[in-house]
Amino acid sequence: MPSRSNNRAAMALLAALSVAIVLYSLLIVQQILLGLLVGVVPWLVYLLVRFVFTLERVATALERLATAQEAPSDRGTETDGGVENSDRTR
Fold it and tell me: pTM, whole model, 2 decimals?
């Protein structure tokens, strides 16, 4: 997993590149839609990837939780011959 400083540097570079593309398309080419498509689509892909990774982490955590709840604990699982049953047989 990349460190936070590398992640922030990459995000800053992506933001600067997106702003430059939008400004270029607005001022030089004079087609704002093209600049928005080229400048916004990488951000949408980035957000989609982050969303998928987050869902994967949530699913993994839920699987671990379900596995932990299904595993029988060592306490209180005895039903035959325990202290609780000794008073009932008398």
Answer: 0.56
